[in-house]
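Archive entry. Fields below.
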Amino acid sequence: MHGMVHGQTRSPLTELRRGVLEHCVLAVLRDEESYAFHIVRTLAAAGELVTSEGTIYPLLARLRRDELVTTTWRESVTGPPRRYYRITSAGRQALDAFSNDWAQFRDAVDAVLSGQPQGVQHGG
Amino acid sequence: MEDDVVVRDYLGRLEAAAWPLPVARRAELIGEVREHIDAAMSEAGNRDEVTIRNILERLGPPEEIVAAEAESGVAAALPIGGQPVSAAVGSSPWGAVEIIALLLLTLGAIFLPFVGPVLGLVFVWASTEWTRRAKLIATTIVAVLLLLPILLLLGVRAGAG
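PREDICTED_STRUCTURE:
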């Protein structure tokens, strides 16, 4: 039956993660600039957000290209210079829009999954 | 050292997989992943093989990283945050450099014999959008077309002399 397709390697969350992850990167950068390795570690610490850490780099390149972040190279005390990422005002707008959309989406999915679609919710 | 071999093997796979990417981006991506490995090793405070294999495992298969790169190129046409962005232009192979290169290679060959196509090649190699393969093909075609008349001319002279 559905969901039991043998040999299907990608979970539905893989598809979902992709679009969500770039906004999570923007959220990590909301209050302070950061460098790629630190962003990856922060997201990994949050839970099941990043599966293959290397895929964060194409994502950061896209955010640069879309001018949702800007970058600056800075000296590092421990190693070679690091590229620091900083959110732009366009990035903040995208993040705010996503935060709203996500809250509604999450609530709708939760409601359906729990068998209590919106409008017929029973107060708790 | 064994661990260096493992890292080199990984980066080699990445380089091979990243072959279709624009030259500048490919070099940048490989540099980023290399730095990530270095940062993860200094974080672990250890460079033994198990540590390194774990780092590479977390990075994921090189092919998957490059696939994400290709997806992000396609997805550039679908701006995030609902904002209409002209990012689709950025993913097109037709930037100013590429258009100038093509004009020099075609019209340039007529109006600026020899100089035009050679200048065109300079622009071809300056492009960050075209692949190395495309650039090599363009160079070969121009070289053959430029050398052919010279060789024919030399052949005629040698035959006459």
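CURATOR_NOTE: Chain B has two domains: 2-87, 96-160.
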